[in-house]
Specification:
4-stranded antiparallel β-sheet, alpha+beta, 159 residues, 4 strands, 15% strand
């Protein structure tokens, strides 16, 4: 995580400036989406688990975000719109384009490399702030553990 001193900055000429807003944070338990490879591996070991987990995840998501509030978060498991984000970051960081809406096919070595990516910041579409990434749409900033913040990549998902 970044631990340096923060300094006020002005947007560059021609940049769109969003309205100022107060931020607040509250701890919460994030759960992996049923599409995450972690859950796929659990399903292989414990057949039938995924069907039950899908229901649990749906109920938990409604509990954590009542009334369809925007889903901004720092760290934790991403709230996916389409597919796991780690393969997208792996592809982007290695200069490869994503050619489909589905998750890219990964070799075993690439799958292990993708697991090194984690969510740093998730920004949801938010009418209050004038942010619209799609309906629904989210921006995910991701980094690899123990790498500098300058090595962060982002990916966007929209339905």
């Amino acid at each position: 995580m970044f631990t340096g001193a923060l300094e006020r900055a002005s947007p560059p000429p021609g940049a769109v400036a969003f309205p100022r807003t107060r931020l607040h944070a509250a701890p919460f338990l994030s759960l992996p989406s049923p599409q995450e490879p972690t859950l796929r591996r659990l399903e292989m070991r414990y057949p039938g688990l995924l069907a039950v987990y899908v229901q649990l995840h749906a109920v938990w998501s409604r509990h954590v975000r009542p009334g369809g509030l925007p889903d901004h978060q720092l760290g934790g498991w991403p709230t996916l719109v389409q597919r796991p984000i780690e393969p997208d970051c792996l592809y982007a960081s290695t200069g490869r384009a994503l050619d489909s809406l589905g998750s890219p096919k990964l070799s075993a070595e690439e799958a292990r490399a993708a697991e090194a990516w984690c969510l740093l910041l998730q920004l949801d579409s938010d009418r209050r702030l004038g942010w619209y990434w799609g309906d629904p749409g989210r921006v995910y900033f991701c980094g690899r553990r123990d790498e500098p913040l300058e090595e962060t990549w982002l990916t966007v998902q929209a339905a």
